[in-house]
Amino acid sequence: MSRTDATPEHTKLFINDEWLDSVSGKTFECINPATEEKICDVAEANEEDVNKAVQVAAAAFKRNSPWRKMDASARGKIMMKAADIIEQKASFIAKLNMLDTGKTLNECVASVHGAVVVFRYYAGLADKLGGKTIPSDGDFFTYTRAEPIGVCGVIIPWNFPITLCSWKLGPALACGNTVVLKPSELTPLAALCITAAFAEAGLPKGVLNVVNGFGPVAGAALASHPLVRKVSFTGSVVTGKKILEMAAKDTLKKVTLELGGKSPFVLFPDCDLETASTICHNNVMFNNGQVCCAGTRNYVHADIYDEFVAKSVSCAKARKVGDPTDEGNQAGALISEPQMKKVLAYIEKGKAEGAKLECGGERIGDKGFFVQPTVFSGVTDDMTIAKEEIFGPVQSILKFTDMEDVLDRCNNTEYGLAAAVFTKDMDRALYMAHNLEAGMTWVNCPNISSQTPFGGVKGSGFGRELGEDAMKEFSHLKAVSIKVSSKNS
Ligand code: NAI
Ligand code: MG
Fold it and tell me: How far is the CA of 62 from the centre of ligand 2 (A)?
């Protein structure tokens, strides 16, 4: 049997190339959000387990360890092989991810293949992280080199357990770091399969470790551990701020934070309304709206407002939500009961504050956490649904008439992850793209690719994932200066 075949071991901690029970022997339940049934019990890490994993990762990073001595191209080769194994196991990993997340099988298959693309991209980059030669004043030969940071604590959320594994493990490993990964307690399974694939591909012992467990215990132990040198986090603003504090408490750690958003999508009258409205619908409803960069504020020009609302409503009504195993469904369940209740409470708030509920707004059925695709028109900037991250299938449509005014309204938020503009006027498109306060601005599209930096400004966090820029986040730049002597002896 290969290491990535499903076995009960895949519910344990993975430390130093071994599947382990937690020190306390405790486990927690992994629930299928589409059925509310238990899938399995998973080993629950506490501070002791996290300490064990970090010690192992620190040992694997020691100066003459196999991982440190390995050529960068050899690191890339292992990563390439891991990507091949993940691809071969795509169907199994996707099914597991479907059970764990409530997403449709189609979405899960796409997640696995997307992760394979990202792992291959970083496998290829492993031996291409060069430095510069610097014309420094004086008689010196000065150059820079990128060096790995050390033990990276990687904490990921539940909305994209496979995708975010690849976004973080890809550059972390390509740069030559060692990793302790803590997946979300709501989606503990997929990361274990991905890690098993890396072990099978020949990653040296201790380089990649996984500790499932709860945020305030396992996550906090990782973010504050003195031997962790870098923390890469994706999740809520509240937790992100705690992570930043913890990362500075004992030893000082390099940190990247990706904390979601309230991304404005602006539609001008000259846009291709049919295409733009379909894009806006798909974007805000994808993964049931549990997407950090979702376009959750649609600012639509008054001249096309009513037509856009009508199109959005017909898209939402036609959207099929239900059993994730049914290929005809475009969306499955939300992640958990609290998340569903939170989304329904936001919908109630939208109604109470005077937005017009055009369609949806209710839970579907009474088993599983399904919510109807929901559209609000008449939304104004002061309403809670226009200000806070809902993380559910809720489209909020606002009206504007003036470009400068809408720019100010778009930017009047603590968030700054993504923004989009829909227009055929390229002058206007560029003006908007350059003046929207966001880490990513899109014109007539949303676009995320392995080559393109992804990340936010302001309260959406800092640091970049994907692209070559992520390699900078997972490495240090060292400057070396050598005195050039004229003495000939
Ligand atoms: P969260 O930010 O609390 O959880 C994300 C990760 O952080 C999980 O692995 C969790 O175990 C860990 N964590 C939680 N508390 C921690 C702590 N004190 N120290 C270290 N790690 C900790 O997000 P949660 O509670 O699952 O979702 C709440 C809301 O956050 C959602 O409704 C959504 O609005 C937002 N969110 C945003 C995400 C994004 O992609 N930016 C992803 C997930 C949630
Ligand atoms: Mg689950």
Answer: 36
